[in-house]
Amino acid sequence: MIAQELKGEFRCLAESRYAKFLLGKLLVHGDKEIRDIIVPEFYGHVRRLIKHPEASWILDDIYRGAATSQQKDYLLREWYGAEFAIFKSEGKGVATSELKSILEQNPEKRKPVMHALHDLINQLIQKKTTGFTMLHDAMRQYMLNVNMGSEEMNEFIELLKGDEEGDLLKNLAFTSSGASVVSMALAHGNAKDRKLIIRAYKNLFSQLAYDEHGHQIILAAFDVIDDTVLTSKSVLLELVGKASEPDESQTEALITAVNHKFARIPILYLFANRRESFMNITERVLLESVHNIRTRTSKKDPAIRRKELVAQFSPPLLSLIANNAATLVQSSFGCQFMMEILPGADGNREAALKAIVALVQSESLEVAEALKTAAAGRMFKTLVQGGPYDTLHKRVKMAEPALGFHNMLFEALVASDQVLQWATSDNSFVIVGLLEAEGFENKENLRKILKEGREALKQAASLSPKVSTTETGKKKAKTKGGNRGSQLLLEDIA
User: Fold this and answer.
1) Of all residues in the chain, what percent carry a pLDDT higher than 70?
2) Calpha distance 279→273 (Å, rounded)
């Protein structure tokens, strides 16, 4: 009723210092019908309203949270010039805000469109109103359609660097399009540009790591900055600390980060073999673009850059595992952390490996339950095999130098008389991994123990109902077929 009475006045309400809050309430609590009454009233007025001291905020709220995908396209298109405020689409088909598609259909419009877009972006940046999601989306469209190394690109990077307070770069970091803009700016920029961009995030890298979008900037910095000393000093200290022996507060912060959905990604990124296991498709596409750009803007070999960064990151992470393996193993993310770090780490890994082996003989009930989870099983099997499995080349990518974990684990299992227990339980594939492991010196001794326990293996292999335990300790549904790992062990000793 209220929305119907105010129909035709919503644009005026948005420009009012106080009435805009009524509009905001209608959008938050209204339904689809109310939204479709309100949003079209802003068509044709975006370029003016986005610069308005009151209406700009409600317009961005509409764009970010209320508008449908098609309505967002209509609103963003108006950034490309007055023509797009009048005509909603080019001829046939549904309108799109993808500038690349628009310019492919109308290449003659490139110059006026890019000029109009840059002009509006520049006006908002000069006004210090840089927190709008719509602005970030517009900046991304501009950057995606500027030629590498062109004067346009250089000017755009200067625009990003020109904000002396750094608010622009800080605001960009926490939206999807904004993080993409900063990542591509790092890739396109020269060494000086990258240094200035990174400097804007001083004392913010920990906050970036925990953000859904901000952590992508850290990954781009890892991949394009040739000065790894700069990267270490800027990022390393805030993410993992500099000391090889983390203090109590640093240890607590690291464990929290390792178990966070986003904060763990920058930590794992340099070490992981299969990044798709913790990175989504959007992140992988962005970084692929960054990698393509850096072939022409970065001088250092990517493998050398990565190796230098790993050397800096390894000591505190290895120390964390050595002193906190019992805590880390109790979460799936903690298990993945140990599984990824140890094969790729640089330095002495013996203390960390021994700490994981010691879990086998732990008297803690929490640790005993954790060892039964699928995540712990994957970790033990990866370490036993000597490294992660390379799905592309269908082989194990061996750590250098060799981990030697298989021999250490076998000795601990024998000492605690747990070989058969593991061979007939959820950890049976770890024992299978021992028999498959390259360089394992006790295969015959293991086979001897398995042959002596053949009846126990047969019983585990033939059991019809099998209940597995998830990482959270909950019981999964029963499945048929017995213990597959025990079946494979029986085949090996037949």
Assistant:
1) 93
2) 12
